[in-house]
Backbone:
């Protein structure tokens, strides 16, 4: 296994390097001269050379319990937040769908009215045409009667 300074875990190395990089960002003086301006690289070099003092703290069972409880509460809060968001979205979608249905119904009614109007106009035209034909027939009939006399 690759050694990371006197750390035997790359995860510990990464955590320690990130904490040291934060310290450097806040203004701590680098303990190595480096060509790199990247604070993470500088922190990694410092740790690899063993220039950073650190202490590994073992978690206590109470700490783990408290952390676990916090995580459970956080999950519940997140789930409640998500439930609320989903409920609001469902209401929005439902409102939107009902508005769309209402608009579609209005459009169907308008289309039906337009069709009825067109049918009525056609009927009126047919009636007018029939009346004209009847009038023409009536005008023609007297001529035939006169000829027979």
Residues:
């Amino acid at each position: 296994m690759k050694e990371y300074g006197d750390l035997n875990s790359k995860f510990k190395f990464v955590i320690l390097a990130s904490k040291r990089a934060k310290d450097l960002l806040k203004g701590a003086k680098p303990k190595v001269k480096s060509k790199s301006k990247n604070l993470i690289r500088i922190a990694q070099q410092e740790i690899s050379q063993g220039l950073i003092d650190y202490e590994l703290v073992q978690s206590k069972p109470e700490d783990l319990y408290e952390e676990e409880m916090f995580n459970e509460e956080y999950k519940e809060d997140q789930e409640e937040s998500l439930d609320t968001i989903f409920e609001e979205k469902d209401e929005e979608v439902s409102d939107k769908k009902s508005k769309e249905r209402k608009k579609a119904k209005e459009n169907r009614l308008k289309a039906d009215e337009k069709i009825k109007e067109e049918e009525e106009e056609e009927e009126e035209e047919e009636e007018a045409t029939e009346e004209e034909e009847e009038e023409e027939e009536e005008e023609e009939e007297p001529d035939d009667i006169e000829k027979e006399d």
Q: What stands out?
A: The mean pLDDT is 81. The first helix runs from residue 10 to 25. The chain is about 75% helix and 0% strand.
